[in-house]
Description:
alpha/beta; PHP domain protein; 5'-3' RNA exonuclease activity; 5'-3' DNA exonuclease activity; 11 strands; PHP_domain; five-stranded mixed beta sheet; 6 helices
Amino acid sequence: MILDLHxxxxxxxxxxxxxxxIKAFAGLRGLDGVCITxxxxxxxxxxxxxxxxxxxxxxxxxxxxxxPQGDLLLFGPDLDFPGGLSADEILARMDAMxxxxxxxxxxxxxxxGEERLAADGMVAAVEEMNGRNTFEENGMIAQWxxxxxxxxxxxxxxxxxxxxxxxxxxFPRFVNGWQDLVAALKSGEAAPIINQIFPLPDFLxxxxxxxx
Length: 212
């Protein structure tokens, strides 16, 4: 099963990607499902957080939460957090509720993530392939993989239709809901992939829309 774990809909102020576009084009991009991870928005443009079939597409709603220590993709039963929390505070809350977090684009120049979050196993996975990163930024994860037994994933970080599915994650089992996703992330049953139909372009992430 192939999921794009990092997608922003129009619920994110810096995205123009609509749910109608996601619904119409995700399958054409080779995706079986998407995770909607809007900035600070966990209700999402859909009514269920617990993965469901939207005309054959699995949709799981999480959120992207920015902290001074790095941006986190969060998945769990209750993601309604106040702003201004540190990564340590957020991750402690996620652990207590049985959720999971992914450290997003840890080597992006403008929005890096702290190494200790991966080194100490505080996150379930690290985003190795991000569709808005440069090749250099994505490649730097090799430093951490050589030192720590981290799980890695991929996501497009799409904010527009042309970005949807540029990078994604392969799961050997069917994932339908945040509980399935959390279990797969924590067990390491995931592998980042670059979409061979719509491959990663060689652009500079600094030229992309700036999202907090």
